[in-house]
Amino acid sequence: MKNMIEYSEDSGEVISVSINGENLDSDDGESWHTPKALLRGVKVNDLPDGIAFALCDKIQEGVIFLDSIPVSITKVSSGKLRLSFEDGGTRKYWDGKIGFSHYMETKKAIVEEREKEDGDIKLDSYDDDGAYIFMHFSTEIDCDTCDEAIQISEQITNEIEGAAELRIGVELFKVSESENEKDFTLRVVLPILRKLGFSNVKYNHGKREYGKDIVFSRITEFDEVEHWAAQVKFGDIRGGANSEIDEIFSQIEDAFKMPYYDLYTKTKVRPSKVCVIVSGKFTENAIEKICEKIESHAMRNNILFIDGERIDTISEKFRRK
What we know:
The structure is a single chain. The chain is α+β, with helices and mostly antiparallel strands. It is built from 8 helices and 21 strands. The chain folds into 2 domains: 1-173, no CATH class; 196-321, Trna Endonuclease, Chain: A, domain 1, CATH 3.40.1350. A hairpin with a 4-residue loop joins strand 4 (25-26) and strand 5. Helix 3 (146-168) packs across helix 4 (180-195) and helix 4 (180-195) packs across helix 8. The model has no long low-confidence stretch (mean pLDDT 86).
């Protein structure tokens, strides 16, 4: 049977856990190392209560390949998960461009500020014994599938690391070629949106995005919620490439026309403004050619085109020298 999760107990303690017949390992009997692929398609309500699944990329020949910030997921009630993050390490093996303590203190400050301003994550502990530094933070989310939880956990970790780089003003981790657009979105664009005062920021990339890589909102001067969406591209948008212009135009139309479910208001909403954000440049009159295809003046007047140069200018405002 697909997505069969089984576990056994002895004297009230969990002694084994398996997913689709694959046994999981545990160091302490409380947290079970779980490759993300095993949880794909698993419904949250199919998870047993109280068992922590420590996510990892894979387990190969007994070696556990962790993400940069390990996270575990635990079902706390119907349709609700706790995501617990454990960030840290030792000064001895740190080879970053800045001191490890400075880096971790910066991330701690970012978590604390987000807890105070947005209330969606919580700092649970921060310990520095002179050699090791460990920070634990967590959040509780409502979701239907483990896929959603994995995506949200990746968004949170990338946002925090990106926000730390933004604040410090140093690129600590090089972006891999295969992950350029995703990393640019999570580590650069999302932290900037939060610093600009937007809230309810959600990375929405996938087959059903309908022109909305990111959705976010703000409270207007008239104390009303204004919903925004952004389509993010890595590299340049060229006006000479008709297929590329047609694709952007179609995505802008979809972004305005297709509603999305807002997790915070529990309603379907449509964005009133759409941003097209590129890491490079709009070349060969690309902006003019996109706008020529848009007949509605109201739609045209509510589109923002943001290039890499403007992203750098905005980033510079938030960097601490």
